[in-house]
Specification:
Layout: H1 2-17, E1 30-32, H2 41-50, E2 58-62, E3 65-68, H3 69-73, E4 75-77, E5 80-87, H4 94-97, E6 105-113, E7 116-123
Parallel strand pairs: 1-4
Antiparallel strand pairs: 2-3, 4-5, 5-7, 6-7
């Protein structure tokens, strides 16, 4: 129940931010090189959340709005696109932008505390585990 409320709140807060959608020239998801065996998805995603990389350029969504490509388009790891939401802060992933609804989202992992929570999810109920 708490996760459902949390995700509903995320969608409402992102809609209030007023993201109007991506310009046509934004890149596709950031592709993380597949490693031997199964990548630790949470570790890879947290690397994008906490760090900066040439593989994760900033994209401009508005006059004064820049966001990491990984937050907007997700990160492809071993053929699966993972998205992350930074709650309760501004986040521009598909769920927070209101482009997908809760029925299309599968939460894979929740990391952090209430004042700074990272929610990692996939779209379309891909049947792969972290």
């Amino acid at each position: 129940m708490f996760i459902g409320w949390l995700l509903i709140s995320l969608g409402a807060s992102a809609a209030a931010i007023g993201s109007s959608g991506p310009p046509a020239d934004l890149p596709s998801p950031v592709v993380e090189a597949a490693s031997e065996g199964k990548a630790d998805v949470a570790t890879v995603i947290m690397g994008y959340v906490e760090g900066e990389s040439r593989d994760d350029p900033l994209v401009q969504l508005g006059e004064n709005v820049w966001v990491k490509s990984s937050n907007y388009h997700g990160v492809e790891i071993n053929g699966i696109v993972y998205y992350y939401c930074i709650f309760p802060h501004a986040s521009f992933d598909p769920l927070c932008r209101g482009e997908v609804d809760l029925e299309a989202v599968r939460v894979r992992r929740i990391i952090g505390e209430p004042e700074f929570t990272i929610i990692i999810y996939t779209i379309n109920y891909e049947e792969h585990e972290i």
